[in-house]
Structures are given as C-alpha cells and as structure tokens.
Amino acid sequence: MNQSVAEQSGLEKELVDRDHIQSIPKSTLQKSTVDSKFVAALSATDFGPIAFKLMHPDDGKPWTLERATKAIEQYRRFLFLSKHYPRQRIVPSWEVDQVWHAHILDTTKYREDCDRLFGSFMDHWPYFGMKDEAEKAELDSAFLDTQQLMEAHFGRV
Q1: What is the mean pLDDT of each successive set of 10 residues along the chain, which is 157 residues long?
Q2: d(CA 3, CA 145)
Q3: Residues 6+ apart with CB under 8 A from 111
C-alpha cells in the first residue's frame, strides 16, 4: 500500500489540523453582504494543502499554524476583493503574496479553485512596481487603496 508524503514523513496530525485552517476565516467573510454565493464558495475552499506547504517549505523557515491561519484568512479577503473589484488593482501584503505563490505552485488546485471562484484563471503579475519610481508609487497607492477596501469590508485588521 502506498503511503502519502505526509504519512511517510510523520506529519499526519498537521494534515488533520488543516480543518482548523479551513474553518477559521469563514466568519470574517460573512461580515460583507456582497455576493453570498461567492462567499460560500470561498469559505468552502480547502486551503489546508497550502497551509501544509507553508509550514513545510523546501527552503526557508517554516510558518507556524497560527501564522499560516492568519495569512490564509487575509488571502481569502484578498480573493474576495479581487472578485468584487475586477477593474481595480488589488495589491496583497507580503504574507498574502506568499500564500498566493504557494497556491499557484499547486497548479491543478489553483486552476480548479480559480475556475470555481472566478470562472477563469486569475493571473499574477509579480513585476508591478519594479519598472521605475512612477510605477512604484502606483503600486504603493494601489496597496493603500486595497487596505482601505479591506477595512471597509472587514473592519480593522
């Protein structure tokens, strides 16, 4: 019988803990009354494998369960804003961007989640703000706008 990577490495308990990861953020999304169907789909999205990857990186320092949980909660909020403000640049924090990268690297899951949540693939443009000082200022402004939207929809975080 084949064992999963987690079983082979003795990390079964942490995979079980992914249910904890999945359940924490749901209440914060319910604060917004916009598109309850999308909120339900986003709440049902299993980010356990993403948390597992953040807690067991190939390189770098592993994240704690608490850090991964908080960052995934913020990532859910980022996805919510991305859905509801498609013409606006929604700029993630550094930690949310790390969650997004981990999600993208699970290509099958990311593609399926994007199709279910957005109806199409959500591209990531990692070069925004790198061209010159004007574009960097644009990035900083878009980040501040994103933070204002976060507060408007989810309160102070």
Answers
A1: 37 39 42 72 96 93 96 97 94 97 97 96 89 94 96 87
A2: 46
A3: 121
